[in-house]
Amino acid sequence: MNRVATGESRSLARPDPLGLALFAVGAVALAGLPFVVFKMNRIVPGVPLDFGAALPSRLAVPCLLVCALSAAAAVAGRSAWLRLVTALGGLAAVAAAAAAAADRLTPPGNLVFRIAPGAGCWLLLACAALLAVDAAMQLRPGPIARVLGLVICLGATGMAFSRGVFDDLSIMREYAVHAHRFAAEALRHLELAFGSLAAAVAFALPLGLMCHRLPSLRAPTLSLLNVVQTIPSIALFGILMAPLAALSAAVPLAAKLGIEGIGAAPAVVALFLYSLLPIVANTALGLQRVSPAAIEAARGMGLTEGQILRGIELPLALPAILAGIRIVLIQNIGLTTIAALIGAGGLGTFVFQGIGQTAIDLVLLGALPTVALAVASGVLLDALIESIDRSRA
Amino acid sequence: MIEIERLTKAYGGTTVVDEVSFTVERGSITVVVGTSGSGKSTLLRMINRLVEPSAGRVRIDGRDTAKEPAHLLRRRIGYVIQGNGLFPHRTVAQNVATVPRLLGWDETRIAVRVRELLELLQLDPRDYADKFPHQLSGGQQQRVGVARALAAEPAVVLMDEPFGALDPIIRAKAQQDLLEVRRRYGTTVVVVTHDMDEAFRLGDRVAVMSRGRVLQYDRPAALLTRPADPFVTQLTGVADRALRLLSLRRAAEVATASSPSDPPIGNTARVREDASLRDVLSELLWSGSPAAAVVDAEGRTLGWLTVAAILAQARAS
Lengths: 393, 317
Prior knowledge:
heterodimer, A: 393 residues, mainly alpha, MetI-like fold, 2 domains, three-stranded antiparallel beta sheet, 16 helices, 3% strand, flat, B: 317 residues, alpha/beta, Rossmann fold, CBS-domain, six-stranded mixed beta sheet, four-stranded antiparallel beta sheet
């Protein structure tokens, strides 16, 4: 009971609050929620199986050990590296356990039974992922380290998929059925999201510059774009159908170029319109923040207006502009999913087909890659912005 | 040489600079001093045409500045502003190299010039060339600003409140640097300031401006002894004008060759030849000596200064 002992026990016993919370959630998920759901086919409600029932003990015990280790590290671990490695281990162990359960529960050759990850499995994966992200952020990785981490994570996941580790899980069963279309729809998704982004950048940068140079235009332009931003996406897709259909009917060239009331044209137009506000506003703000003294000095030394814009203003506004582009990119990847509703294609096709067939695995086949794309794009652009910021401030 | 002739700037009905004329001799420092709103900054900015004159003209070494494109004119004129205006995304070396790059100098010549200027301004190129402006102190940033203005060997440098943001010790150092630059390169300098002490310390000539007009363009001592306008007296101050006058004379100018008739006993004060009479007087008062030996850099006695001889210099006439 002396002071030294108290101090020591305090430093040992103070648990990490996030680690403790996630440990509690994980324990409930493991003990009380189904780990996998067994379904006779892809649309009927299934039979929930808990962790013990889903796996034989020779597989369950090692997985539980890894999970316990990462939980212990999360609650009491001091080293962020230890927490990161054990969290990633936990993530891999839970994923492997789900794959093994699906493998074990599916009779050989049967393609009708579906083994879907249950609520417990998803919660455990989410807990482990949160722990890994939290630990990684504590390490304060630089831009290069972040991109490297992303590449390693994607590489490891991709390798597991290509080796067929998850082939018996329900989502991969859906993939197997739709494999002939998946790559094309994913590519279409990227085309729609990045194509509309590129068009928006080409249009919004000059518009942002104009808002900066002519302050009287700034408020009306931003208000107008704000109104566009508030139109619900489904409504905007709908609103665009009539005029584009009319355009297609009236102008043969437009029809020849593939512009129709439904399909890619209204989707790209709508995504383009949604992209304008963040880029225009951030461009104007970034330019406004450039030090007036630097511009005055540049002019006084004989730089031309074009040289000032290219050499001083745009480079200094670049981090703000990229932050706007980052918002738009993630927004577009998400919104493109809805564009499938008007026949534009993309990963949203699977989502809406899945909803129509009440096949939740098909919904996930569209939704999970969309989330992965958005996260990866966010990490890459963050790294780019930070590498620019670091080189100067 | 800068010849300013009836230079005028009017915005709408307001005349900010009103028919100002004066000539800045080659290699001299002219300080334009005035209260805020006196038009002194506008006057300066008309020299490099950051502000286009409404009337009148400026000739630099005989060439009318209106006869060439403004951006080409500015590349021949150094420009330093308050808060230095360094480019935050470029290194010290890149900042200094701005105008030589615009002029298309080759890389070797630029590198040599950047190194020379950083050394002149006591910024070791090995330590500072690749630093970014935010990694420097305020005084160092200001010196980089001066180096950048001098980079393309301009015959004329314009400075708009260049030392306004610096603390007194750093400011005195920066003023010394400027005098050294002028001595070394023979640059013609026009400085705008509202600080009368700065005007007295730097100026070969001082132009006092008020409400767009130059009230007096003269040597600093003449502003004290023959003020052309009550405003000049008000600006230079009355209380310490005798001491101001002393601060404008150097010891070597006044020292007499013969030692005082009543030679000082004990430790005689020794002062450097370039000390101002004000500093010598202060030294004599402090040490209690009736006279000081004026010595050169090697310590040889050049002459003598007595308190009485110094006081004689402080009289108005």
